């Protein structure tokens, strides 16, 4: 007999996501001297934050981890609670069901399926943007509206889509002639979209985008991510 790291046998690629969740939970939360296959059903939220952060940094291969405000957004998402404070969440525990069994309210996927989609997108298309801290990413649509509503016309930021797995969207301010402001969210870009045209070039294309929140001219923020266009190319 030999001890091994946990393995999961699957029969189809569509089971890959759930298999990864099982392995991650086992690796992160099983005790060394446990009865075989026994893993805690609930774990402290703080432990979960550490696990998600380590997973994110390892998968994306970046030194820039998750921040406190990212954990706050993730807690609101997994617990479906928008009234609790950051301190309230620190004393809570999260269950396996909340992590990868229960469908998020109004969505067709679990918390882990959504988070894994973000991981995959960032790893494939957004690593340099994330490492340069150009993407806030983990932030709610409601909070984006609060942040941007008082900003000048053309101020924008990047967040991971709530409604789609593996999508990044741009939220930007449009100010009317009467001074009223409106925050618009551009349809999310998937990994496939960004393989056709990079995020930097898409941002350069969009004339309505001027300053990255809080106040960095977009060419200054994203200039190093623009591709040199071929002359005469449409």
Would you give an account of this structure?
The structure is a single chain. With 234 residues, the chain is of the alpha+beta class. It has one domain: Recoverin, domain 1. Helix content is 42%, strand content 12%. The strands form 2 sheets. It has a 5-stranded mixed β-sheet with strand order 5-4-3-6-7. Strands 1-2 form a two-stranded antiparallel sheet. The longest helix is centred in the middle third of the chain and has 21 residues. The radius of gyration is 20 Å and the shape is globular. Keywords: Activator, Cytoplasm, DNA-binding, Nucleus, Phosphoprotein, SH2 domain, Transcription, Transcription regulation. InterPro entries: p53-like_TF_DNA-bd_sf, SH2, SH2_dom_sf, STAT, STAT_linker.
């Amino acid at each position: 007999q030999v001890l091994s790291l946990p393995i999961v046998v699957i029969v189809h690629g569509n089971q890959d996501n759930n298999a990864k969740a099982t392995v991650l939970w086992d690796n992160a939360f099983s005790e060394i001297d446990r009865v075989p296959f026994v893993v805690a059903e609930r774990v402290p939220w703080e432990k979960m934050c550490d696990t998600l952060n380590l997973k994110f940094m390892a998968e994306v291969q970046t030194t820039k981890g998750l921040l406190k405000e990212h954990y706050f957004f993730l807690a609101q998402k997994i617990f479906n609670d928008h009234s609790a404070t950051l301190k309230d969440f620190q004393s809570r525990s999260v269950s396996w069901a909340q992590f990868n069994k229960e469908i998020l309210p109004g969505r067709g996927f679990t918390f882990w399926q959504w988070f894994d989609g973000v991981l995959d997108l960032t790893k494939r298309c957004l690593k340099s943007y994330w490492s340069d801290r150009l993407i806030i990413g983990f932030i709610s649509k409601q909070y984006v509206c609060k942040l941007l509503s008082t900003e000048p016309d053309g101020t924008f930021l990047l967040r991971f889509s709530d409604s789609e797995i593996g999508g990044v969207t741009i939220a930007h301010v449009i100010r009317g002639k009467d001074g009223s402001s409106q925050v618009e969210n551009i349809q999310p870009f998937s990994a496939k979209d960004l393989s056709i045209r990079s995020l930097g070039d898409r941002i350069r294309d969009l004339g309505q985008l001027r300053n990255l929140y809080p106040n960095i001219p977009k060419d200054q923020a994203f200039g190093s991510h623009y591709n040199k266009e071929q002359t005469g190319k449409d």
